């Protein structure tokens, strides 16, 4: 399930995370026969399987794997490279990867800690803990609860407002949440599941107001340090400030046989979540295989190392909002994730900071929280009855069409490794894998899409002989305000500098470049591995990032 998934023109995924799909996954390593596997056999099979997948899919530079099983950390291991161009940059169990929206689970645990301390309940209105919280929908403003936000059942629609943090429209997370008062909403409260990163930006501010600390400081003091998670930070920038930058993996993007990167996660625009602030409650946390194993044990032990109450983790991992979609596909295509789900006989739901809860992993009780950023991908899965947790993270963001077989590669690997530890017979494991690919190919036969020629082939945006004429520049210069939610999406400016037409939006100021279409320009900024365009409807109207802007000066 997507998280921190880019929206509009910026966030359309149209390229490939290459993967070998022809060979059965069991090829190249030995399976046990008859009876259950020993723990040593399970470990050996899982490691061999992951190594096989990396060999078959060289577009994944590096990967981390942790397996917590029946109270022991059976695997905490790195594979491959932190930097694709540096053979000496081996990934280890201490290498920190961006985990994307798995950060949301930490925010949920932070709220649970405050509940355990008697400071709030799941069902408290947000307004009771964040007095300055404002929405245009005043009923939703008054009655939205912490649980509504945690289970993705708020008035905020899927990915509403994400462009604001990507382009740095506001200087802080608090300012971002304050400006939700200016964001038009079309959903009614508790109308069903919709994946909103803004829900967790609000929750981050709830933590800060309740504790008089930043949410990173609170998680460090109340969760990470007590658990011994010293290889986990709120963001790459925080890790670098703690002199742990050498342990950060760099990010990459892949399309077909091409990998671009490495991208520094602290400084490179292609890897940044926001240019305005480094800490993002919805998804900026970095962590290692070592620490993710520790956190898995915490989730699988009902939080006993931190919480007085034995029910809080159970409440986090209980389904609260029934899923009628899985963000990138409908629920009837859940087998593309490596799930076993029958919409006529099963129910799957979102927990608190958890994507999927249900008996969909070879019939076992199961929950998961995925995480994606532009240059990293994280997948996990937990089977509480078997005290089993598997977490994988890869340092590449694949430009694969959502719903395609390459898009779901890490999901399938997650499910396969879980199956090994659940003693699922080899034929059934292979059947799951192959069915996931078949389903994805039905959904999205084009597993390649279109690789952006500028990013993946090095084709310059500028074409000899194509320029924006001085006359056109003079006509377009001015200020343009967003038609929808103008107080939130703000305005952009076009100015002339050194005979060039320059676009200013948020934290970015870059020139526009002419194309063969006289009404379409490319903005000279590198974000998301996709060329960003500005289309001119007339001299007073621009279409940018899927938003219409009209001249106001």
Automatic annotation (TrEMBL):
SUPFAM superfamilies: beta-lactamase/transpeptidase-like. The keyword Signal applies. It holds the Pfam family Beta-lactamase. Keywords: Signal. InterPro entries: AmpC-like, Beta-lactam-related, Beta-lactam/transpept-like. Residues 52-401 form the Beta-lactamase-related domain. Residues 1-22 form the signal peptide. The keyword Signal applies. This is Beta-lactamase-related domain-containing protein.
